[in-house]
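Support reply, case 0932

Customer input (verbatim):
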Amino acid sequence: MTPAEVLSSDLAEAAQAMRAKQEPFAFATIVRTAGSTAAKPGAKALLSADGTILHGWLGGGCTRGAVKRATVQALQDGTPQLVSVAPEDLLAEKGVSAGDEVDGTRFARNGSPSRGTVDIFIEPCIPMPALVVMGASPVAQALSALAPQFHWTVETAMPAGNADPSPHQSRYVVVATQGQGDLDALTSALSLETSYVAFVGSKRKFASLSDKLIAAGIDQTLIAKVQAPAGINLGAVTPEEIALSILAQLVQVRRAATKDAHG
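Our regenerated output:
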């Protein structure tokens, strides 16, 4: 839970409900005001993915409009936003126009009669990626214990009905059955909508399993995308070291996907 969540029980409960549903949301906090403004520093709100205020209050329409746009941007980019809503003449004094971003601050026009300035910080809260760890091997157990420390939600069983994840949540699968139902596990993993599938085992073993998967009618392009052996080559030997190498690769793949998505 973020620091902002614990400041209000209502906001905290609402945020926990959003997290439970794996839905993205954002906190907006007024960090500074100048002149006459309806809301004051410290005012907070919880916003949905489309920028709608679900809980809390931030003031008038101009502020809400700017916050809505910034929230959508923050959740799209996965980065916080700082918005300054100010009267037209003050924007002109600064040499900026509504929509400009300067030194990390995005400016918006306050057209209300109050003519005050409001600065709002937007904190995006994006669902953690889901990691499905298939198997009960020592590597599977070590990975299941390690991954939550790096902000992954861990599932140790195939989702019921191979259901798709939340549209806002990415899913990664590691098959660590290590001889106990490898073929069935890979077949199930390749039937899912995933961002990554890895197999804990040697290249030779996976090559043999690949032939069986192809014979079973599995698309060869899906099989070719499986990371086998799983993990970055760290020279890992123990189950814990192998789990660490897999997690390092998971982080690498996840961050590369985020970078590509945001240009």
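We compared this against your earlier run and they match. Two observations from our side: The chain is about 35% helix and 20% strand. The first strand starts at residue 25 and ends at 34. Please reopen the case if you see a mismatch on your end.
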